[in-house]
User: Fold this.
Amino acid sequence: MFFQRVPEYKLRLPTPEEALPGRSEPLPTANAHTVLGTPIKPPFPDGMQQIIFGMGCFWGAERRFWEVPGVYTTAAGYCGGLTPNPTYEEVCSGRTGHNEVVLVVFDPDKVSLDDLLKVFWEAHDPTQGMRQGNDMGTQYRSGIYFFGPMQHAHAEASKAQFADALQEAGLNPITTEVMPAPTFYYAEAYHQQYLDKNPGGYCGLGGTGVCMPRG
Assistant:
């Protein structure tokens, strides 16, 4: 398979000195989810929980989660970097440190966190480092950004479980970062529910073919 040559600096996180300055004001974005009809910004209804996933290009990743029953809303955005309120072009430059991510707001009475983690692990390849398929750069790394100790415990347990399944299949170790949810910056309006607005648009998601073990 042929991969486009990517500058080395795009495959490592920038230092604070290298990071772009960003801006103090949030980027303009959408307010309502075009598929679910729900708000993509808080406040969310009582009882909803949130988690953030990075799994490659956020266009396809967001669609995977808005299709899950029990998910209240989703939003495309950026997190895990240094630059405040970055633009898409800045993130793609490799000089913000941000990951392309999806905020998932869900009703735990209708869908469990473990069900969402199963979608996460099976829908992408978590072994590729700063890459997902042909998409290369720090913004395509695999990541789980959790809220609270319960989510942390479930994320780490699922990571260990899926790592064993990958090893049994003869695949590489997991490179997914698991960390407390940093500031989530909403992406520009045209990125929100992109594949709903552009049904034939690009989706770079591709799993390993390995399923999350039961239990």
User: Anything to note?
Assistant: The chain has a mean pLDDT of 96. The CA atoms of residues 117 and 155 lie 7 Å apart. Residues 46-197 form a domain with the Peptide Methionine Sulfoxide Reductase; Chain A fold (CATH 3.30.1060.10).
